[in-house]
Every structure is written in structure tokens, then in C-alpha cells.
Amino acid sequence: MTRLLFTALLYCLTPALLLRLWLRGRTLPGYRQRWRERFGHWPTMPEGALWLHSVSVGETIAARPFVERWLTRHPDIPVIITTMTPTGSETVQALFGDKVHHAYLPWDYPHVYRRLLPRLNPKALVIMETELWPNLINACDRHRVPVFLVNGRLSERSARGYHRFRALTRPMLQQLTGIAAQHWPDAERFQALGVPAENIEVTGSIKFDLSISSKLTGDITAFARGIKGRPVWVAASTHGGEEEGLLEVQRRITTVLPNALMILVPRHPDRFETVSDIVATSGLRYSRRSQRSQPRDKDQVYLADSLGELMIFFGAAQVAVMGNTFNDGGGHNPIEPAALGKPVLVGPSFTNFQSIISAMQKEQGIIVTETLEALEKRLLGLLKSQDLRDTFGQRAYVFYQHQQGALQRLEHWLDRHLNLVDPNADPSRHALPPKISSDR
After folding, report:
1. What pTM was estimated for this model as a whole?
2. Is 173 helix (H, G, I), strand (E, B) or coil?
3. pLDDT tens sequence across 42-68
4. Are residues 254 and 379 in the same domain?
5. Which residues make Cβ contacts (< 8 Å) with residue 98, sequence separation at least 6?
6. What span, in angstroms and rounded, lies between the C-alpha atoms of 98 and 80?
7. For residues 412 and 150, is the Cβ–Cβ distance under 8 A?
């Protein structure tokens, strides 16, 4: 009954959803294109494919090694990737080209999936992280399509939300074939919401299995060469409500280190112009990536209004500050700068990655700053001291190394469920990651 009420509300909200796409299309024209796919009218797709839903840019990038290895390990099973955003679609095209098939995930109308699933007959639906839709999962259950939530994470705040609507979420979670959770606290929260323990496996986060390619190394070297040894810090994946404060931190830092450079990387492309206006009113000299491939010598801020280049900026900088942590937003994943051996700082809000960040704190692999004033002091100390940077960067890198191996564990777990390998094969080489204790 609750799912029926949800569905009725969704149908009623369809005009508002279409209006929202149109309005967002003012800054990102892709939102005004391919609307038919939102209603399940897809281009021709192969039958029997692995269907991977990766929502947007971050999830798609995280899924890259899994998809590439799947195409190598199972060349006879094609891959369909769905996303919700145009930037996610662009990322799929940039990463995979014509190696995979892409469409937007339809909105959660039951009649759409009743029509779509028999035509696709997918091998399985694999959902990255936490993008769960009740009618999609129910339709897969009815058509006997196994559904796996992989790289699954569930913060305390999200768990409370799921519990609040448990009449809708509990049946949905129990229809999942399996959950590959990132860490033990995530698994415990899923179990508390009604998922049987035997349906949950802790495999770790596949984001720890990112690879540093020779191309990336070359791009980092080229960009760093243009900075000419200046003190540089990155404010990565920032959101509304925190750029102003971070820019003020940079203004005060330049009174001590006049040649310090801040690389400002907004999370969402549709905010690039807004953030540019914010920087312009800060009084700091700045340039934009879209206009200059390198910051100018006198620039105090370099606005990275581009896609897919965050790792370059992490690699070229000396210190990384993760955004969405100074605005009660819940934070972003600190793994990428850790993989490059950079000191990582976050603000007080990191509920979205509480398990990872709490574990990194125990290993002194991350610095949590409660205020912008504290951030300024820690940044100055790190930018002035190579020894401090080496110490915290090494600790972050060691933590990253210890958590690797999730991709192989996930592959082994999925293959067993899909009968793609001998289910009795020796799993000893797929040891679990070091246990990250519950942070409740």
C-alpha cells in the first residue's frame, strides 16, 4: 500500500519533474535532451546484459575499474550503464565510448519497467552505492532479475531516513538479492533496517582500487610545472554556502604566504558561473580553467570550472581540503588525495563518509577541523612545512593501501551469485578489508 501511495505521488509530480529538467537546462542544456529515455523509451539495447546504474559522475568514475574488468572477464555479457544526469552521461561516453550502452534511468513508474524488463532480460541489475527505487526493484523481483547494491554505504543520517519510511524501504531492501557493503558499520545499519545478515557481504570500497595511470602522472607533472613551486591547496568538490568562507581563509593565508594559490573546484557544473561571481566579489585575483590552462603568476585563486580533472589538481597541490564539510552537507570521499599521498583536511560535517573518515582519524591519516579558523591554522602549518606534509600524506597513503582489494572481493562475490564461477572455489585469496569499527 505504501508503494502504491509513493507511485501515485510520483505520477502527480510528473509535471513538476519535467519543469525541473527544463529549468536546470538553462545552465546544462543536456537536461533538455533525451526526455523520452526518462519514460523508458530507450534506443536499441542488447538482451542479457549486465545493467549497471551509476547515478552521476562520482559513481561512474568509481565504477570504471569494475566495468573495464567485467568487459575483459566476461566479453560475452555486454554492459548497459544508466545515469540520472547529463554530466554522468558525458562521463560514461568519455570513459567507455562505444564499449558500453548508455541511457538515462527512467523515473520510477511501474508500467515503464513492466514494459522494459521483459525486453532487456538483463543478467542482473547492479546499483552503485545507494540509489534505490522501490518500483524498479519490485519489478526486477517479479521478473526474477537479481538486484545487487554494490559499494553500498549508509550513513547514520540516511539510516534514520530509511527507518522513518520503513513501510516503503523495508520491503524494498528485503527484495535485494545482495548488498556488498563498503564497511562493517554500513552492513550493521542495513541489517538493522531488516536486510537478512546472509544477504550482506563486506567487500570494502572499490574507490580504494583506483589506479594512477601514466597519463594522469604526466598531466599532473605538466600542470605542476606551470605552478612553479608555489604553496598550493585544493578546495575540492565545494557546495553552496562554503565557498565564501574558504575564500576568506585564502585571503588570510596570502597575508602570510603572498604567493599561495587556492585551486577552487566546485562540485556541480551548473554552479560554475555562480562561483565565478563569488570569487570575483572576494577581491582575490583569479583566473578560470575554461579560459587559461595554467594559473597566472599573480593569481591567488584558480577556478577549476572543468570536469574530470580533480585528480590532476590533487596531484599538483600540496594539501587537499574536501568540500561539502563546512556547510553541514555530509562531505565527500577523501580517498583520491590519500591515494596520491596528500595531506587531507575536512570540516566538521562528514556523515556521508563517517566510517572511512573515523577510521582515518584513528590512524591519524586525516585532519578534522571544526571551524574555518582552525582550517586556516592547519593549512598554514602544512603549507610552510614539508615535514608535516610528508607525515600526514604518508599516513593517508598507508591507510589507502591497507583498504585495497575491494574490487576483487566484489567480483568474486558477484560471480558466485551469478554462477559465473565455481561457487565452491577457494575464496581465501579474497580476504576482507581491515575491520572499521562501528561509529555509532
Report:
1. 0.81
2. helix
3. 999 999 999 999 988 888 988 999 999
4. yes
5. none
6. 11
7. no
Domain assignment present for 4: no
DSSP strands (E only) in 41-105: 50-53, 79-83, 101-104
Q: Write out the catalytic residue numbers.
A: 59
User: What are the cell numbers at 161?
Assistant: 531516513
Query: Identity (one letter) of the amino acid at 345?
Result: L
CATH (domain of 77): 3.40.50.11720
Shared-domain flag, residues 87 and 134: yes
**55 occurs within a structural domain:** yes
Provide the 3-class DSSP secondary structure of residue 343.
Answer: coil
pLDDT tens-place string over residues 192-243: 999 999 999 999 989 888 878 899 999 999 999 999 889 999 999 999 999 9
For 233, list phi and psi in degrees, rounded to 5.
-130, 150
Considering the domain architecture, whether residues 231 and 342 belong to the same structural domain is answered as yes
| DSSP assigned state of 150 | E
What is d(CA 141, CA 146) in angstroms, rounded to the nearest whole number? 7
Q: Which domain holds residue 95?
A: 33-204+406-417
Is-contact 31 24, C-beta < 8 A?
A: yes
